[in-house]
Design brief:
Helices cover 49% and strands 14% of the residues. With 185 residues, it is α/β, with parallel strands linked by helices. It has a single domain (6-184), classed as Rossmann fold (3-Layer(aba) Sandwich), CATH 3.40.50.
Length: 185
């Protein structure tokens, strides 16, 4: 098992371009790990549950998938890996949704903090000034800004530093991230 991978988190407001940046990094040959929450929402909606975020087990489903994906990433031969969100984001989501953090979530956060699983510098993809709602993302811009602040506060609470990536083209934002990390890899 590889244990010295640099696991770099991208986070930020819904509809800020995180997934597009992740896809751009993948095209450039980097290992990327997709967001778990959207996957869980789509899966649940296909099963007939149109608002899975209202269910008490929603957060634990996300945590379980994130944990499996992170463990699988540990086996990959890559020096740098980019994660579209992390368990810290899931904690922020639980806070936003009004759920108490579950034991599973707290245990996972304790594990990643104790193991220094992720780099402490997190790339915070700033909002674009608008949001495009989807079937999985039913949030307006005003709520997205509240969610954005909860993310910033949560990452700070757990000892992470957010490096802001300002609005720009996907290619430029990707380049900005790579320029920041390249001297460090």
């Amino acid at each position: 098992m590889i244990t010295n991978n640099k696991k770099i988190i991208l986070t930020g407001t819904p509809s800020s371009g995180k997934t597009s940046i992740i896809n751009c990094l993948k095209k450039k040959g980097y290992v990327v790990i997709q967001e778990a929450a959207t996957f869980i929402i789509k899966k649940e909606q296909r099963l007939g549950n149109q608002e899975p975020w209202k269910n008490s087990d929603f957060i634990n489903k996300i945590v379980s998938l994130q944990k499996r994906r992170e463990r699988k990433a540990n086996t990959l031969l890559s020096h740098v890996q980019f994660f579209d969100r992390s368990p810290i984001c899931t904690y922020a989501l639980a806070t936003y949704l009004g759920f108490s953090p579950s034991t599973l979530l707290c245990d996972e956060i304790n594990r990643i903090l104790e193991n220094n699983s992720y780099e402490k510098e997190v790339f915070f993809i700033q909002n674009l000034g608008f949001i495009t709602p989807t079937n999985e993302r039913r949030i307006d811009f005003k709520e997205a800004l509240i969610f954005e602040q909860i993310h910033k506060d949560t990452y700070s609470k757990f000892g992470f530093n957010c490096t802001l990536i300002k609005p720009n083209s996907i290619e430029q934002r990707t380049t900005d991230i790579l320029n920041i990390i390249n001297p460090k890899i």
